[in-house]
């Protein structure tokens, strides 16, 4: 029996993780649930999965819930609560399904407590890849990818020596605006972004998929997960989202992982790894697949992708700045304050103005993150 802590249980990945757990009650149980604020969904989850600890980052919501579950379930709040959620002694695996840089401290705490990390929260690895992977190595902790592309690569790499790998081919759906030109992109709104062709996801990653910042974040995520150089990571647009990513080996052979676009598959693999379990997420029917197509991403239009490569290659705190500026810009776009194309402008502005320090300590990253958030907020204010 593997006991799972879910950070971000009420979101898209969190709820799909609970579906996987519910379908395999003899294999998994829920030790911890956490969410940003209380809602009826979280209460349903508590009733159904009976976790030992529940954490809400919103303090007043946690107080209300604590009254309701007094004497039955331990309820904690705030960032300290989230750290408790990450290190709960009963958990074997911590599945990080919260959004953004907020995942960094709890992920580091879980690693120090020697929990296996099932990582969905890619922003953490983007912002602090060196620190997180170093901590994982020192603590002999595995970081198992949940992101579908990285899960695909991870699956392809089973039994493969990294010295045999020439490059990783990250596939991208291209997002809902793949065929639009710059002029057309000026007027797209939030509701247009949220109509993603193949995946249904949380709001932030849905906007990231439309700007291709998501693919940029994934390039940096892959660099750290698989310890490869940026020259060894290629992005290829595959609008059908059936090939979830590929690995090219030094002898020219290419390995790919295919499946229907359903996040429960990589989630389940992260939880059962290195074993597999039967699942009923739907199966590929090759007699019905008309074609697989591939194209180059248009980085003149979707500049967030090339800026992610640039930030990654510069290294240090640049990826952290890229991520922070993007987080703030996406929030502003979602609340109707800025236009779609402003998101990339705001990232550009932060990357151009950032003055790197030599060290990549946690303290330096926290400072860079705060600096970029402030800078992005100023840029947004000047636009509105
Ligand atoms: P979501 O917005 O649907 O859910 C986020 C969850 O985290 C919610 O439970 C929310 O209450 C909680 N949360 C949000 N902000 C928080 C904070 N500051 N502190 C604590 N809890 C917080 O998001 P999602 O789409 O499930 O994505 C989660 C993560 O997984 C992201 O990093 C995303 O990039 C990654 N991811 C998602 C998908 C997908 O299909 N949704 C695929 C690959 C990777
Ligand atoms: Mg992905």
From TrEMBL:
Domain 1-deoxy-D-xylulose 5-phosphate reductoisomerase N-terminal: from-to ranges: 4-129
Positions of NADPH binding: 10-13, 38, 121, 123, 202
Essential cofactor(s): Mg(2+); Mn(2+)
Catalyzed reaction equations: 2-C-methyl-D-erythritol 4-phosphate + NADP(+) = 1-deoxy-D-xylulose 5-phosphate + NADPH + H(+)
Domain 1-deoxy-D-xylulose 5-phosphate reductoisomerase C-terminal: start-end pairs: 143-226
Keywords of this entry: Isomerase, Isoprene biosynthesis, Magnesium, Manganese, Metal-binding, NADP, Oxidoreductase
Pathway where it operates: Isoprenoid biosynthesis; isopentenyl diphosphate biosynthesis via DXP pathway; isopentenyl diphosphate from 1-deoxy-D-xylulose 5-phosphate: step 1/6
EC number: 1.1.1.267
Enzyme class: oxidoreductase
Superkingdom of the source species: Bacteria
GO molecular function annotations of the record: 1-deoxy-D-xylulose-5-phosphate reductoisomerase activity; isomerase activity; manganese ion binding; NADPH binding
Ligand binding (Mn(2+)): 147, 149, 218
Membrane-spanning intervals of the chain: none
Binding site for 1-deoxy-D-xylulose 5-phosphate: 122, 148-149, 173, 196, 209, 214-215, 218
Domain DXP reductoisomerase C-terminal: start-end pairs: 258-374
InterPro entries associated with the record: DXP_reductoisomerase, DXP_reductoisomerase_C, DXP_reductoisomerase_N, DXPR_C, DXPR_C_sf, NAD(P)-bd_dom_sf
GO BP: isopentenyl diphosphate biosynthetic process, methylerythritol 4-phosphate pathway involved in terpenoid biosynthetic process
NCBIfam families: Dxr, PRK12464.1
Functional description taken from the UniProt entry: Catalyzes the NADPH-dependent rearrangement and reduction of 1-deoxy-D-xylulose-5-phosphate (DXP) to 2-C-methyl-D-erythritol 4-phosphate (MEP).
Family affiliation: Belongs to the DXR family.
Name listed for the protein in its UniProt record: 1-deoxy-D-xylulose 5-phosphate reductoisomerase
Species, as recorded: Anaerosporomusa subterranea
